[in-house]
Input
Amino acid sequence: MVTEGFVRKGIGGFYYVETAYGLYTCKARGKFRKEKISPYAGDRVTITTEEDGTGSLDTILPRKNFLVRPPVANIDRLFIVVSMQTPNPDPFLIDKTVAAAEVQHIEPVLVFTKTDLQPAEELERIYRQAGFVCFTVSSLTKAGLEQVRSFLEESRVSVFTGNTGAGKSSLLNALFPDFSLKTGEVSQKLGRGRHTTREVELYKIKEDTYVADTPGFSTFDIQRYEIADKEQLVYGFREFVPFLGQCRFTSCSHTCELGCALLEAVQQGKIHPSRLESYRAMYEEIKDVKQWQKNKTV
Output
């Protein structure tokens, strides 16, 4: 039988596809390897099923967006989990993650954790000023959890990402106390050996609503996220957009030029200086990337 489905997880060459008829363990056809294409969690796919619950993954349907790290497709919201202590927050890493989401038309959401140990007022002020939804939470005291849970339930596919040790898994278990049980049950079927986040797995919150816990990271290469074009980088900073086209020079890089509308906006308090600092640092990373290199970023 040929049917459409939704990839919940991929591991060791097997893809676990949810369909209207149940969950199937599928192997991808060889053409994907030849074409150097990998199915991602979140992909809508067509599969050919067998009676024993296995199948072949035949086609990946068009994606509305995707990230290569974490490897997830068709995302509505990216919840960027930021620890306020151990590890300490890194605004540059946050801004890289936000920019990666913005250029892929994924809504970034900031979640500041461990706020019982260190307040998040300054970071919250920066990102609220930039136009982002922010939450301050504590998995220990349960503060702020209900607001995050309600927001999650409004999306079809949400992804939690962030620095290693930020507390993504702890936060999800605090949000959904039965996740520990569900993790064991689903993972037994999906092939998870133990409760360690090594790959992306989509968990069902309710019908047609999923959330992914993802492996943590400590470095972030923006060239892997289709942000290799210095002219497009500015669109990863939504609060910059109203000032575009107002600079003295049409070739303005928005880093140091006289008459730059963005620099003036920073001086007027309309853009936070830390956001401009991140933009400048990212610009330096990609300003010399050649066209052939851009085509190899994904």
In short: The chain has nine helices and 13 strands.
